[in-house]
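Section 3.1: Structural characterization of target chains.
Under the original work plan, the team committed to producing a structural model for every single-chain target entering the pipeline before any wet-lab resources were allocated. The record below documents one such target. The sequence was received from the expression subgroup and is listed exactly as submitted; it comprises 419 residues.
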Amino acid sequence: MTSLAIIVLCAIALFALGDLVMVCGFVWVFRKTRPAEVPAEWQPKTAVILCLRGPDPFLDDCITALLDQDYANYGVRIIVDSRQDPAWEIAQEIVDRCPMAEVSIEELRPRRATCSLKCSSVLQAFDDLDESYEVAALLDADTIPHRTWLRELVAPLAQPDVGATTGNRWYLPVRPTCGSLVRHAWNAAAVVQMYFYHIPWGGTLALKLDVFRHSDLADRWAHAFCEDTMLYEVVQRRGQRVQFVPSLMMVNRETCTLGGFYHWVRRQLLAARLYHPGWLTVAVHGILTSLAPLLALGLLLAGIAAGNAAAAWSAAAALAVSVFSSPLLLILLERAVAQVIRRRGEPTRWLSAAGALKLFAAILLTKAVYLCALLSAIFVRAVHWRGIGYRIHGPWQIRITDDRPYEAVPEAVAGSRSL
């Protein structure tokens, strides 16, 4: 028992050290990088695509900010699930109130049964772009873009070896419910992994249209569950890279339930399983780091019951490293991201002292919920996303099994649409 407890202690310490190295590397990116300016001689015409199904809580703010970007040469394509969708009326009212030269609101057509409705919407928007457009940008409805969002997103594409750019989400919920705190803790760790595994986020993403026009991306989207995770491999095959833009950590202030978080995070993990080459590494790391503390707890109780002080102390040390390392790493991340958010003039204070204690407890709960979602994502073959049923037979074998007009459902409160 003592030997096993020591092995668990060493394993947890190594995991914590590895996580510390990754977090420090991620934080260093924020310290050394400043927002890039779009070169005066390179102002590519850009289409911003917003796909809507249902009235997201901050949709009004999202569209209003999108139509007021500090970028001289862009158009907006809003694809709505249907004219009966409540998002249609919201979008139309805002567009009428904030007129812009090049903006359109369109109903989704056709509704492909071989991919997600999000992929159908993205394909519709991309297919209709003429040759004058050089860049397409994707924005999620739960993202509120600051005025220089598009300039910062497009700027790195001036480099020939950059085929796509991406930001990431950062949750600062208005109401720190249990589900919202767990989502905040999980997402903080996820953005670090997404950076090192080069996983793009479709909520803030730009793509050179040459990549779309001279690759098999259109065919992939026509048979895919999500639009963003696969882009790393597509861009890499062209000898280019996906550039992370640190200044585009986008704040999401929505609240969610614990059940809503579970369904949301399982869908993010499913997308990684289907489309990212680093999935096996992500899965093994997630399972081991989640099970190790549980094993340490079991060894601690067993050591106490057997009167084995060496085993009990080793297990207690392992448990302490696991429990306290995650909050310390989260503090490092919070400080780095908060600096980015404050530069935009956005508030970053969101937790009281009591809320911080709740967050500490939520970090422990996160490991258990994450493990359950991860194991489910490995085997899941059917999911619901915003009221639409999907059958997953394989990465490129997606079938819609239940397509109906949007209805507000508990699953929808989980927040973002993609990893």
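Residues 1-419 form a domain with the Spore Coat Polysaccharide Biosynthesis Protein SpsA; Chain A fold (CATH 3.90.550.10).
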